[in-house]
Design goal:
The complex is a heterodimer. Chain A is an alpha/beta fold. Chain A is 30% helix and 16% strand. Chain A has one domain: Thiamin diphosphate (ThDP)-binding fold, Pyr/PP domains (Rossmann fold). Chain A contains 10 helices and 8 strands. In chain A, strands 2-1-3-4-6-5-8-7 form an 8-stranded mixed sheet, with helices on both faces. Chain B is α/β, with parallel strands linked by helices. Classes of the chains: A alpha/beta, B alpha/beta. Chains A and B meet through strand 1, strand 2, helix 2, helix 4 and helix 10 of A and strand 9, helix 7, helix 8, helix 9 and helix 10 of B.
Chain lengths: 290, 580
């Protein structure tokens, strides 16, 4: 059995005391240990931002890429070695600003990734500009008059794009977050986990105290059916005094992208032998152009 | 009478099947034992406009098209207007009398043949679409070429459309052939099959590169369609299931390069084909591959910029762009093949270089090389020479024997750090686009930064030693030395041949290995040359500037072309005469 300690890295986090990233980090390690996954079986992929440093603090395979490109890098890794559990951890700027297009296409593809968004609804590492998930009217260094844009609705967008697993959790409830991430890791296909992550330095509005009284669990709602896409869309619109968390939507009737690629029927691409072409193959290629 | 030395040009609107018939004619001629060079010229549209395809034919190997036309097959009137001035004395225009009433031809010495191509097509094949087939039949009749190879190509190309379509096109071709034969006595340019000629492959640069890449172990291709690079993605997709290749058409070129970086990091030989516009989107991630030392191959088939430029035409304008693209400094390798053979070789060699030096490799092609068709001997695609050298990649046994924490970016004398494919319990590591330690951890320490930069850049010291010097073609001593790179090879080689045939001593230096630049041998070769002229398909002479930067040698004489059309032997010679 692997344990949480198997994922301990010698590098200490540089996150602020009280940062919501600690909760996400701990929940992820717990979920991996619960599923008995070893560090070498996991690939953590991130972009740029406070949350994207998570792979540096975790003993597992990891690749910290550039801002907004977490999902395409992870897609390449998954297609090259679908034996790995490929898990993205990146922030709302990475995922929903520069990377929003990639998220939508990953959802359409149903590529087998877990996409954990450390959604603090502010830009932290660049010190306090508003983000795509900031509320409209948010006053920040780049929106001194209050932002004009509506916030993106990642749950509704993922549903619209055809995601087969759409969930939300938050850093203040490690048990719920661990359960949600564990479910995402076991899912067949693309799994979005949007995580409310309080930023104690630059977002004094969306704090632990803000979320705690507002969030409620969809699993505890009588009759809630996570295979009902329309119901999921309706819950995705709820915002304000009551904010749903949990698995909004999950179906496994669609094959993952990697299951459909002909070349991957023989197993992970990287495990397939890399040899020179055989004489018969060479003759066949030449014959195409004679 | 001239035998086996002519150019046939087929012209019409987009949608008339000009390109497929031009390529089909090339294949038929090569099956008849002749050498061919086929050049498509088309507009960026699906229907209408003006497309043409030139097929040059010889009993000697060909490396270039030529500008004079001996037989023009005009499927519409515009073709006549655009190309009649290119027709040589004694040449002919075959045109569709159903479409053109009065031939607007004002030159004597050209045979004008009004033939009801559409009507014949409809009668024989049941569709006017087959008029290009009729026209090819006329060409065979006029030139006295054996119709059998043309029929074999018709059978092959129309097979998937059913026997009725095959028979219709065979009948259309036969009718055209008979019509052409009636006028054969008036047409002095003849084509004769060479009976015992060895088999020849007929392909373009894109196909050759894709084949070379597959032979070299490319197993992952991601791309977004863009002329003229996308046929490589299409070719790989067509072969994906049979050869175990993963291909993915993704949302943009940013995704494409990041996918191949992911695949490269995971241990698979990966490539993204594109053109300059797509490469522009890839620029940031190119630096990611450089920083994290991930082997990737980017195939950049240039077209004229800036911006959309001339979408279906050619230029060599991206040289400096690919040399310096992305912020900061990191090792990269740039190859610019110039022929079918070199494109094939670059296909597999790029992957070896990428893995040996753990860095991005860019293969620069262009629309001309990517699309022009040439025949080569089967051995010219030298599969025997292909090697798969994965560089310092740790084997399973070496991974099993690892002790202590694995250092992905270990400081070594060569700068190359033994690479572990993620997935082994003894080589668990994370690396970063941030500056990092030997282990891959994010690190801002000044001393570490300096050492890590030195380590990465040091890889070029070994790489430059395996960069090939410019290849000399022509006599050792010459009055004129041309310097070319990439696709200028063919037209330049022919210009050199023609000058030498005229008694003027000329040679050429052709550069394939562009970066790291082979400075020392190039400087020596240039120092020994008398009069040096750079020949490039761009506005400023980017290679000449690079040579000056690397060697200090200023090449003031430059023959440049930036009208979107490829260099031709005639264009080069005309400019030499003007300069001399």
């Amino acid at each position: 059995m692997t344990t949480v300690n198997d994922f301990a890295s010698p590098v200490r986090p540089t996150w602020c005391t009280g940062c919501g990233n600690f909760g996400i980090w701990n929940a992820l390690k717990r979920a991996l240990a619960r599923l008995d996954l070893a560090p070498h079986q996991v690939m953590l992929v991130s972009g740029i931002g406070c949350g994207s440093k998570l792979p540096d603090y975790t003993h597992a395979n990891g690749y910290m890429s550039i801002h907004g490109r977490t999902v395409p890098v992870a897609t390449g890794i998954k297609l090259a070695n679908h034996g790995l559990k490929v898990i993205c951890t990146h922030g709302d700027g990475d995922a929903y600003a520069e990377g929003l297009g990639h998220m939508m296409h990953a959802a359409r593809r149903n590529i087998g990734l877990v996409d954990i968004i450390q959604d603090n609804r502010i830009y932290g590492l660049t010190k306090g500009q508003y983000s795509p998930t900031s509320d409209q009217g948010r006053v920040s260094k780049t929106s001194p008059w209050g932002s004009f844009e509506l916030p993106v609705n990642p749950i509704a967008l993922a549903l619209a794009a055809g995601a087969t697993f759409v969930a939300r959790s938050w850093s203040g409830d490690i048990t719920h977050l661990t359960d949600t991430i564990a479910s995402a890791i076991q899912h067949r296909g693309y799994a979005l986990v949007d995580v409310f992550q309080p930023c104690v330095t630059f977002n004094r509005i969306n704090s632990y105290e803000y979320y705690r009284p507002r969030v409620y669990k969809l699993q505890e709602e009588p009759g809630y059916d996570p295979t009902d896409r329309i119901a999921a869309f309706q819950r995705a619109q709820e915002w304000g005094d009551r904010i749903p968390i949990g698995i909004f939507y999950q179906v496994e009737d669609r094959p993952a992208y990697e299951e459909q690629v002909p070349a991957l029927k023989a197993g992970p691409l990287v495990k397939q032998p890399l040899e020179k072409l055989r004489p018969g193959q060479i003759e066949a290629l030449r014959a195409e152009v004679i | 009478m001239t035998t086996n030395n002519m150019t046939i040009r087929l012209g019409g609107a987009a949608g008339d099947g000009v390109e497929s018939n031009g390529a089909g004619l090339c294949l038929a001629l090569a099956r008849g034992g002749l050498h061919v060079f086929g050049l498509p010229d088309y507009h960026s549209r699906i229907r209408g406009g003006h497309n043409f395809y030139s097929v040059r034919i010889s009993d000697q190997p060909l490396y270039s098209h030529e500008e004079p036309v001996h037989l023009l097959l005009a499927l519409n009137e515009e073709t006549i207007h655009r190309h009649r001035d290119k027709i040589v004395e004694g040449g002919a225009i075959v045109y569709d009398s159903g479409q053109v009433q009065d031939l607007p031809l004002h030159r004597k010495g050209i045979l004008a043949l009004p033939i009801p191509l559409s009507e014949m097509a409809k009668e024989k094949a049941g569709t006017e679409l087959a008029r290009n087939t009729v026209a090819l039949g006329v060409a065979a009749g006029l030139t006295g070429f054996d119709p059998a190879p043309i029929e074999s190509v018709i059978r092959q190309n129309f097979a998937r459309k059913g026997q009725t379509v095959v028979d219709g096109n065979l009948a259309a071709s036969e009718a055209g052939y008979q019509e052409g034969q009636k006028h054969a006595a008036d047409f002095p340019f003849k084509l004769k099959t060479i009976p015992d000629a060895p088999p020849r492959l007929v392909l373009n640069g894109n196909q050759a590169f894709a084949m070379g890449a597959l032979a070299g172990g490319c197993r992952f291709v991601a791309g977004y369609p863009m002329t003229p690079g996308s046929p490589v993605l299409e070719w790989m997709a067509a072969h994906a299931a049979d050869y175990g290749v993963v291909t993915a058409q993704v949302e943009d070129e940013i995704a494409a390069i990041n996918l191949i970086i992911g695949a490269g990091q995971a241990g698979v030989r990966a490539m993204a084909p594109t053109s300059g516009g797509g490469f522009s989107l890839m620029v940031e991630a190119l630096g990611l591959a450089g920083m994290t030392e991930v082997p990737i191959v980017v195939y950049e088939a240039q077209r004229p910029g800036p911006s959309t430029g001339l979408a279906t035409r050619t230029e060599q304008g991206d040289l400096w762009f690919v040399l310096r693209a992305s912020q900061g400094e990191f090792p990269r390798i740039v190859l610019a093949p110039g022929t079918i053979e070199q494109s094939f070789e670059a296909g597999w060699r790029a992957f070896n270089l990428a893995e040996r030096y753990q860095c991005p490799v860019i293969v620069l092609s262009d629309h001309f090389l990517a699309n022009a068709i040439r025949d080569v001997a089967p051995e010219a695609l030298d599969f025997d020479a292909v090697t798969i050298d994965r560089g310092e990649l740790l084997s399973q046994a070496e991974l099993d024997a690892l002790e202590g924490d694995y250092k992905r970016h270990a400081f070594t004398e060569s700068g190359i750090s033994p690479r572990a494919i993620p997935g082994h319990p003894r080589a668990v590591y994370a690396t970063s686009s941030d500056e990092h330690t030997e282990y891959g951890h994010i690190e801002e320490d000044a001393e570490n930064r300096r050492r890590m930069m030195d380590k990465r850049m040091r890889k070029l010291e070994a790489a430059v030693k395996e960069m090939r010097p410019p290849a000399l073609y022509g006599p050792q001593d010459a009055d004129f030395t041309f310097v070319g790179w990439g696709s200028t090879y063919g037209p330049l080689r022919e210009a050199v041949d023609r000058l030498n045939a005229q008694g003027k001593l000329a040679n050429m230096l052709h550069i394939v290995d562009v970066w790291p630049f082979p400075t020392e041998p190039t400087a020596q070769m240039l120092a020994a040359a008398k009069r040096v002229i750079a020949v490039e398909g761009n506005y400023s002479g980017q290679m000449a500037d690079l040579i000056r930067m690397a060697t200090g040698h200023q090449i003031a004489d430059r023959i440049l072309k930036y009208d979107g059309r490829p260099l031709s032997p005639e264009y080069i010679l005309e400019n030499v005469t003007r300069k001399a």
